[in-house]
Amino acid sequence: MNEFCTICKEETNVPKARPVSERRFYVEAAGQLCRSCFYDSYHPDDKWNPDTPEDLASRAMSDIQTHDVFKNPWSKE
To answer: 3-state SS of the chain: helix, strand, coil percent to 5?
Structure first.
């Protein structure tokens, strides 16, 4: 189950189980925001570009964490 944006109430792509330290668009004391509400709130004059280096890197890190590529296959954990 995913989190909902605290502003627009739309479902985000952030699982509820994901720690807040690993989330994008999480605002302390406000909660989880969707991408649109985050950019509307914090960058209202900027035109949002989903292909900025930051967004590309974030999506890559999210994919990496999802697929456990850093997990040691020989680890006994």
So the answer is: 30, 15, 50
